What does this fold into?
Amino acid sequence: MTSRKMISLLIVFVLLFGGLDFRAGISSANDRLDFREGDYLVNILQDGDGKERVFKFTPGNRITATNTKLRLFINSREIESKEYTVDYENYTITMRNAPDIGAEISVKYSISPTFEWGEAESGIDKIGNALSEGDGSTRVFKVTSRYTINSSKNVSLYIDGSKVRPSEFTFNHENNTVTILEKRRAPGPKSKIYFYFPRTSISGTQPSHGEPAAIPPSGPAANRSPNTAVGTEFQVPGGASFPGTIQLNPDHTFTVNTTAATSRPAYFSYLMVKNAKGKLVRQVRVNPNSPSTYSLSKLGLPSGGYYFYLKTINQSGGLAASIPQFVPINNEPQNIQVLIGGQLQAYAQAPVNWNGSAFVPLRAIFESLGATVEWDSSTQTVTATREGKTIVLTIGSNIAYVNGVPVTLSAPAQLIHGITMVPVRFVSEALGGVVEWNEASKSVVVFQNKPVIPTSAESEKTPIEQGGQEPSSEPSEPSASSPILQNISKGITNSSDIVFVIDVTGSMGEVIDYVKETVRSFVDSVPSGSNFAIVGYRDINYVDIYNPDFEVFDFTNNKDLLKAQLDSLVASGGEDVEESGLEAIDKAVQKLSGSKNSKRIIFITDAPVHDKGTSPGMAGFSLEEINAKLQTNQVTLDAIAPQSGLAHEQIIKLVQSNHGTLYDINDATLLQLH
It folds into this structure.
């Protein structure tokens, strides 16, 4: 049985047996599991067995050939309608050919008014209900639900994928009506209107409404992702069970290997690198399901301690990461380096190799380990104390004392260039540390307590430092292998107000890193008097309580502040559907509307945009409308986007009509590591 089916059965089990006190009075038949994908609901069927051609499906809503459109998928690939027939009366589907053994089969049906589904909207278990479509004037909509709703609290409303402010609508649970207030225009013709109410407000069912729908999952199933609006499955385990490894090699390379579990469609795997302070400094896309060897030196990192881990994400916000492992990097391997707690130590006298032991300055090593030091010049003896431990060493003696107990040293303390040097292993272990020697990087690694390195998307954000300044210990900026921003800057000859419009959905991690790492040189190369702003966007149908649909930053000419703002953007979330870039461009045009400088937008995305003309109900603008706004405001638009497919067809129209250039997004990469 596939993992997807096991998860489905687990959810059904929870629905049947979990939370019985809450669901008293609600029919036990409410165990069907439909979840939303865009404007469709998905129902999972039994896996194929290589023989059966007739399959039963049990949707969570009463569907007919006239109230919805049903589509069949096998292993995520849509099957042509001529290859199957649907019996809506008996809810069976008959296929021309029997699906293979283990084939994953599902049907999608378009959402119609009164249809309901389960969804973790804004981190709360809610039920979604489709209201009647808008007509441009109606403001009061009836909620026709199979449930009895006993509260108006914690409800929410979406019109064409955009969340309506709580101040712009009301819900009356006594007569089940939603009213759009006058401060907002009435929903336009054919607008999709989705209303959500929490599970906790359900007191029973409405038998007269017809066949009951699925109760939203609770327990582990409901908690699988608090910040996704669609129950798309994510099946990659994290931690020690993550299906991938990082192997350090003696020749200053490392090998990354991930299994087939990370290579599903719309899954993306990365090598993540954090510095000793826990800040993300590199993110590099890796090839799934195949081992690849990379050069450590080509990461472009200064000498020091780093944490490497693998991460797989999908565009619905699911993520899993391996356990971070510590990696010392030494760009001058002829010199020994010492790292304590991950931090590279700087000593007045460099560490030396003395008869096979690494020696470091006595006072410096003791103090960096938190000990106090006293020196008796008459006896050439040092006494160090920390947390109830006392260590006594005498120059030239191979016997030391730890709390009065003699310990034989591998080599005695030595005077080297007038500085007392001691074996780092003995000192560290005597004070409770764990010492490792890394031969490849010629590094002594000491940990007293292994740090906990978080791997969540939130931990990969960089807080904006006070005054917009970044820590001075950041890695130096590598030379970009792609000259995109450099080429754009060559075409800017006058002071300009420039807005970066950046798609920050899950697949954009490496591209965002490219912008972060190369924007400094770009800012330095454009004419003085220029200002910069950022609009980051996610899909308008995506609900993420941590990452809003739009992240908009004001104009600044402070390159440090701009870099800090960029660092706060993290690629996460966003459904595997077309993105809402036109709304983001519109926000950028609004920001530029009062500008006295030349105006420019740099649009960065790897996906098509919602176009009201071709995707009605999914966007507020058409390409033609946005193009007209750009031309009216005399905005130049450059783009970093795909060179083929629908995204190219759409974006090239905006670029060519507004005196810009389209650059291949595949060139927006920092490093060629092989």
The first helix runs from residue 3 to 17. Residues 119 and 126 are 5 Å apart (CA to CA). Confidence is low (pLDDT under 50) at residues 1-31, 208-232, 463-481.
